[in-house]
Every structure is written in C-alpha cells, then in structure tokens.
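New to this. Help decode both lines:
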Amino acid sequence: MHAAPFSSHNGNTPAHARTDASAERPFVVRLHKRGEDRAGSFVPAASVELTPFFRTCGLLHALPAEELKSLLFVLTFVTPNGDILPTVHELAQAMHLSPGKTDARLRRLSAFRWQENPVLHLLRRESGLHAWSPSSQLLSLYHAPSLGVQELALRSAHRDTVIAASRQRYARSREEV
C-alpha cells in the first residue's frame, strides 16, 4: 500500500492511500506490531527504510547535500503510528541550528521539485506549531504481516512446548504412516 504524507489530525489511514504496487518510492514507512498478545493488543512501532529505488530514481543525485541532510532529519521523526510531522523547533534541536536557520533550510527543501512535486510540505496548524511533511512521491506505507495467535505462543514458548505443538500439528500415528 502506498501512501501520501500522514496526517495525524484525524487519526485515520492517510486520505491518499494507494494500492498500486508498481509505483516505487525512495522510502518505505514500515509499520510493526510489538508485543502482540492473544487478545490482539499490541504496541505500534514504525521505521523508515531506504529502498534500492532511492539510489536509481535520481533524487539522491539531484538533491544538494544540505537539502538531503535536512530531508533525512525530517524522516527520522517517524512516530510509532507512522506519522512524520516534525515542527521547526524539533528539527532545530536535532540539527543543532537556530529555528530561523532550520526554517530557511526547510523552505529551500520545500522549493526543491522532484517529479514535478515539492519534496516537503508545510502543514499549517491553528496552534501555530506548524509541521513539515514529506511528499507522497517519496513514501510508501507497508504494514508488516501480523502473526497469528499460535505463532505468538510458539515464539516465546519453551523448548518442550514447541516440540509438543509441532508434534500435535505435524505428527502422524504409526498406523497412519
């Protein structure tokens, strides 16, 4: 599933979610479930991964070094739910720059066009804590497959429990063999 920049204002799946598997993106936001139990409860987790397409699509060669560095800083702010919406102040602290210099860098990056779209968008908020969001042309969304209850039980089981479950599932009686 491919997605547009994530919007945390409504908590729903991104509005521009796509299922076109052929559309490649330079980065993948991989959503995970940590600590899933038998009841289905889990702790969300997300990571951003570089794809081989990033090397071959031209973005890496086209972006000046400072803008590439700024983009990578933005991507490191992925939340456990897969949102990437850092504020200027968060980025300034991470980049060890003043908010003014950080804002100038981000505006230069948002003016940069790749595949006829800006690389970064400014998300204006009523609170005044505006956030920066990567373009939908850069990100794909991947939901890691969920493990079944039986796999979860076996994953943390002791050796004897695993053997017993395997025998129950795969073993056949002598008469049957």
About this structure: The first helix runs from residue 52 to 56. The CA atoms of residues 105 and 139 lie 21 Å apart. The chain has seven helices and seven strands.
